[in-house]
Specification:
Length: about 110
């Protein structure tokens, strides 16, 4: 990566994604879930429960905030209502973010 502050597409994975590479507009992999992107990430219709998206920063960093948005569009009202944020150095050692000394396992989106 030329600029190490940017996240490459291969650093983003998800529980599943909607669509097919061969059908333009119907391929919604996790890297399309970027803020202000023309498209969006969507989970597979065959695996809609407990969807997740993961970003591998490839090094220890300090994250100062997280911004999210719905998919937008006039006829599309898709957005999340709650989320969980976990972090760690490996998939097997993820922990929830803390709030007032306690794990914050669910964050309501207003």
């Amino acid at each position: 990566m030329a600029n190490d502050t940017k996240v490459a597409n291969d650093q983003m994975t998800a529980s599943s994604h909607y669509g097919y590479v061969s059908v333009p507009g119907l391929y919604l992999p996790p890297w399309k879930g970027r803020l202000n992107h023309d498209e969006y990430w969507a989970t597979s219709v065959s695996n809609p429960s407990d969807p997740w998206i993961k970003v591998d920063f490839r090094k220890n960093i300090s994250v100062k905030g997280i911004a999210i948005q719905g998919s937008g569009g006039d006829n599309n009202n898709d957005w999340i209502k709650t989320l969980e944020i976990q972090y760690g150095n490996s998939q097997d050692a993820l922990v929830y973010i803390m709030e007032a000394g306690y794990p914050k396992e669910s964050i309501k989106i207003l």
